[in-house]
């Protein structure tokens, strides 16, 4: 029995059984995976919905949602009709969301494997984390790139508070810019604070609710996808 763990997931295959061990196993082609994390209510599902609406018909796409006790976010996306229902899978973590995206990623890997069979290796899978705190990040055994979504209404100090999602995510999205006047937040200050701790990694301000900034997120995403295929 040969064990292939090159994509962070164990796969059994009969290849090589009983023969001389092969060289490093080749990673099998699989969909590109984008993790979307961030605090509770920051707009992750809204962003997933907006990305699906723009990208369906352009690239095969599927979604995995994570909620602790329910399938709320998957239900929302199905209700919105952003994708065919069978292309939206829900993981019920039953534990802190970061555990299921960083430490014990088996349920998410099963979901992406199932989706991969539906959409094919050339597709894209968006994996939304359950809302969590500033320490939550995805394991790169589960995703290829990750977005961290902050909420302006959480206060303009949040970017200064740092944490791995703010400082090292592949893209930081600062969402709900429309709410800044209502909560007295200084978005420019927030973007400057984020830029200071991110060492050149990109930051995009958005108001996903009315579509502002979403095209820029799509451009970033498609550039990363193309680079991954080179
Ligand atoms: N004003 C405003 N509201 C937004 C924006 N984006 C999302 N919302 C609203 O914020 C609320 C939470 O959005 P969700 O997309 O469910 O947030 P989430 O991060 O997926 O939430 P959890 O999965 O529960 O952590 C919803 O009522 C959205 O309509 C935005 O740009 N502006
Ligand atoms: Mg959500």
Descriptive labels:
two-stranded antiparallel sheet; alpha/beta; 9 strands; binds magnesium ion; 230 residues; binds guanosine-5'-triphosphate; 9 helices; disordered N terminus; seven-stranded parallel beta sheet; Rossmann fold
Task: Write up what this structure looks like.
- With 230 residues, the protein is α/β, with parallel strands linked by helices.
- It has a single domain, classed as 3-Layer(aba) Sandwich (Rossmann fold), CATH 3.40.50.300.
- It is built from nine helices and nine strands.
- The chain has a seven-stranded parallel beta sheet, with helices on both faces. Strands 1-2 form a two-stranded antiparallel sheet.
- Helix 1 crosses helix 9.
- The two termini are 32 Å apart.
- The N terminus is likely disordered.
- The chain binds guanosine-5'-triphosphate (GTP) and magnesium ion.
- Magnesium ion (MG) binds next to helix 1.
């Amino acid at each position: 029995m040969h064990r292939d763990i090159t994509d962070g997931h164990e796969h059994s295959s009969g290849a090589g059984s009983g023969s001389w061990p092969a060289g490093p196993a080749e990673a099998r082609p699989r969909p590109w995976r984008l993790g979307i994390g961030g605090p509770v209510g920051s707009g992750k599902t809204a962003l997933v919905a907006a990305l699906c609406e723009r990208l369906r018909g352009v690239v095969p796409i599927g979604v995995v949602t994570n909620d602790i006790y329910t399938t709320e976010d998957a239900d929302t996306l199905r209700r919105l009709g952003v994708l065919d229902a069978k292309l939206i899978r829900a993981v019920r973590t039953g534990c802190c969301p970061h555990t299921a995206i960083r430490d014990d990623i088996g349920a998410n890997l099963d979901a992406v494997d199932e989706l991969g069979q539906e959409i094919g290796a050339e597709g894209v899978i968006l994996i939304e984390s359950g809302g969590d705190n500033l320490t939550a990040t995805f394991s790169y055994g589960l995703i290829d790139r990750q977005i961290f979504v902050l909420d302006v209404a959480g206060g303009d100090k949040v970017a200064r508070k740092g944490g791995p999602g703010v400082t090292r995510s592949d893209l930081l999205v600062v969402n709900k810019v429309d709410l800044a006047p209502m909560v007295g937040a200084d978005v420019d200050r927030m973007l400057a604070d984020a830029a200071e701790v991110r060492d050149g990694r990109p930051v995009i301000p958005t108001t996903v609710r009315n579509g502002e900034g979403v095209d820029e997120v799509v451009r970033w995403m498609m550039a990363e996808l193309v680079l991954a295929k080179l």
